[in-house]
Amino acid sequence: MNVNNIVEKLEGIAELVRFFNFDFDVIDNCELTKNEIKTLMQLKFKSGQSLSYYSNKIGLKKGSFTSLTDKLEEKELIKKSYIEHDKRKKVIIRTDRGIEITDKFYNSFVNHLSIKISKLSDTDLVLMESAINILSKINLT
Fold this sequence. Notes:
Layout: H1 3-19, H2 34-45, H3 51-58, H4 62-74, E1 78-83, E2 86-94, H5 96-117, H6 122-140
Antiparallel strand pairs: 1-2
Helix pairs in contact: 2-3, 2-5
């Protein structure tokens, strides 16, 4: 397979990745933007990192991300604090309410994905997991 074929196939993967931007339902009268949900999800998977870490993960500039985290803090979903040994850096963690809301969004997404994946055969599921493992290795290098 040549590089051009790989690039064409990557477009199909890009479509799959766009699928992950599915519309979350409003949960507990808590209306959140997609970027707020993405931030909470990033916190679920790796908590206690710096604001710059999450802004890179979400794809927002520092000023926009600071504004986003201010809104999440006003909604009492996250808490910002300084790193103990470095007062220049702030980290963010989810509050109890933030954990509860995030888990509801996460479970909603897992249910949605389960319905999609249930249409695959066992063989295709194994192939999908293998492909994800390979792509994860490429991403790490």
